[in-house]
Design a protein that fits this description.
The protein contains six helices and four strands, in the order βαβαβαβααα. With 158 residues, the chain is an alpha/beta fold. α1 links the parallel β1 and β2.
Length: 158
């Protein structure tokens, strides 16, 4: 998957490399994400920006840690041929201050928490969800745990 990564309001660090590693891990547990034609944008930004995006696009006037905006539904993604021009999968935005506070509360590294949230976003872009049923949530969490393990990151649900 090709990524376009923007950094606005995050400290210097290996965020682009982390996004690439996380996309690879996501493709390792969700085969639909392994199509080389796919492209996604990842925005590492501020709480204020994510709050504005959440208000404008989701109708929720509150900050959150990660937002994902899929551009393909799961059926279109499944039917995407391996040959052809790049196809935009969607966008992910991470809020720095919220991610940092959550990582501190959990006693984990910011990079590990950011990887978990990115992975969560990539799975949403692939059509996974966790709001309609406990089964959906458990299935999505299992994929996250498996992918994070390949990155050397502990189970975030323990």
């Amino acid at each position: 998957m090709m990524l376009d990564v923007d950094l606005e309001g995050w400290p210097e660090g290996g965020w682009e490399a982390l996004a690439d590693r996380t996309a690879e891990a996501a493709a390792g547990v969700e085969p639909l994400l392994a199509n080389d034609r796919l492209a996604a944008s990842v925005l590492f930004t501020t709480d204020a920006e994510v709050h504005a995006l959440n208000r404008e696009w989701r109708g929720r006037d509150k900050p959150t840690n990660v937002l994902s905006f899929p551009m393909l539904d799961r059926d279109a993604l499944a039917g995407l041929a391996s040959d052809g021009p790049p196809e935009m999968l969607g966008d992910i935005a991470l809020a720095y201050e919220t991610c940092l506070a959550e990582a501190r509360d959990k006693g984990i590294a910011l990079a590990d928490h950011a990887a978990h949230l990115l992975l969560h976003g990539f799975l949403h872009l692939a059509g996974h969800d966790h709001v309609d049923s406990a089964e959906q949530a458990e299935a999505m969490e299992a994929l996250e745990i498996r992918a994070l393990r390949t990155m050397g990151i502990a189970n975030p649900y323990d």
